[in-house]
Structures are given as structure tokens and as C-alpha cells.
Task: structure prediction
Amino acid sequence: MSKDEDFPQPPDLDQMPRFAGIATFMRLPLVSDLKKLDIALIGVPCDGGSTNRAGARHGPREIRNMSSLIRRVNPASGIAPFDLCRVGDVGDAPVNPIDIADALARIQAFFEALAAAGVVPLGAGGDHLVTLPILRAIATERPLGLVQFDAHSDTVDSYFGGQRYTHGTPFRRAVEEKLIDPARTVQIGIRGSLFSSDEMAFARQGGMRLISIEEFYELGIDAVIAEARRVVGDGPAYVSFDVDGLDPVYASGTGTPEVGGFSTHEAQRMIRGLRGLDLVGADVVEVAPPFDLGGVTALAAANIMFELLCVLADATARRGAG
Ligand code: MN
Ligand code: MN
Result:
């Protein structure tokens, strides 16, 4: 088999224009044989955890569509992820739109199959609750470090009379279940009005490092990157990117928008700054196309996915070489 068949590439311009063909993530082949992959791109069309504006179940299709604009080489880092790793679209995780517990079980089982095959996951939600079953599938040996880009901490205990599984609770559950290490967790972009002044108590008292948007702009981007790297350290880590971390100017299509966020370019620079960490998986969540204006949110998410893929491919290739 040629290297091209081993290492799938998006079609070149002389093969097919980018607007043509069936929409897969980044115009990669749809792959069912997990042995052919190092990194899988997965849709997780589940928004049963949304507490406000629903619609993130439609995220994967629109991100796939907008990801047709993605090319092959990162212009800033020079990383060519499709040369470093075998990457493909494995389709959508199975979900259940009327039963959250069953949806979580189905998503977890799908990601467990990837993990059993040694395939690194890069998911596209779905609301932020989908990160919990992904972590359950891959954080089996030890708690992971976490870099979370988000306007919200997502560490509330429960909503609506004891509902413990919503998109506002995944990282509290993840700490309780020892899927993430709070001392190796950094949350970047935190903002928005609160229901009470002690809403972040669990995150702060539990040892998570919260970087509010005010601190983000006080420190500057290079210092934020350095702080994220310090917190996460050398151990295995996961990156979860909630598009509501972006300012609504760049990401109107999301369930819980908060004004005053970082820009798409600042997000790109922060993700590039994670190169060299031992990254074992990532996701982009909370794209809600019914609220998107001109597809800008799906476009941002597709490009965030590409940035995440570049640092994941770099980490995956280094683990393979080591
Ligand atoms: Mn979130
Ligand atoms: Mn959020």
C-alpha cells in the first residue's frame, strides 16, 4: 500500500474542488476499520444536556460542511497532521435524544472501542455533557490533566431539582469519578453573570486553575499559555474547547453565549501553544447551528478542530516514535 493510502489526505485541487463531494470532517475518508487510524474525527450529535438554547445536536453536520475549507498544513506551526498520523472520519457516535443516561452509555461505548484500538479521539459535539462519557472511555488508568476553553466552569452540582447530568455539570462529575485531576485542570475564558457569588467554589476550592477573561487580558496570551502548560505538566492531558469561550461575535451559534470573550485568533494561538504536551484526546462542543449567523460558528469550530488536530497529531507521532 502506498503512503497515500496509509495516510489519507484531503483531495487535492486537481482532484476535486473543496465545495464538492460528500461532507466528511476535513474531506477525509469515512473509515470503519479502526486499525487503519491513529486519530479519529467523531461527531457526537447529542444536546440532551442543554439547559438553555438547544440545537448542538446539529453541530457535527455543520462542522463537517464548514471543515471542507480546511487544507493540509498549519500556516503558523508548519504541522502537516495528515503526514504525521493516519486520520479519518469515523462518523457519529450513537445517541439517544430522549434518554440522557442511555445516550451517555452509547457514547461511552463508542469511544471505548476507539480506545481499545489505540485510536486517539477528536470529537465534535454536541453539548458539553458529551465530554463526560468520552473521559469515562479514555481516562481509565489515571486522572487526566484538562485544558478547558470555556466561558463557564461547568462544575455545578445539579440543576432543576437534582439533575446531575447537564452541560453545566460534566467537570464536577469528572472530578468525582477521578477522570480528571483538578490540580492539573485549567479553565480559560471564564466570564458571565452568575446565579450566586459562590458558584465557582467547587472549582476553586478543589484546586482547579480558573483564568477569567479579565485575567486573560491582564496576563497576555503568552503568559496564559505558560500558565496552562505549568498547570497541566508532563502527564497525559485532554483539551476541551467550548465554542462559547469565543466572543459571540465569532460564535453566535451556541446555547449559552457570553459577551466579552477571546477571539478566534487568540484561540488559535493558545491551542498552538499547547504543542509538546502529552495530549491524548480533544473535543469541540456547543456549536448550535440554529443560532449561527452565516455559519461563522461552525467555521470557527472547524478551524479549532484543525488546530487541535495539529497538536494531537504532533503528540501522537512523538508517542509512537518514543
Ligand atoms: Mn462548557
Ligand atoms: Mn460554556
Summary: The CA atoms of residues 15 and 250 lie 32 Å apart. The longest strand covers residues 180-190. The mean pLDDT is 96. The pocket of manganese (II) ion (ligand 1) is lined by residues 128, 150, 152, 154, 242 (CB under 6 Å).
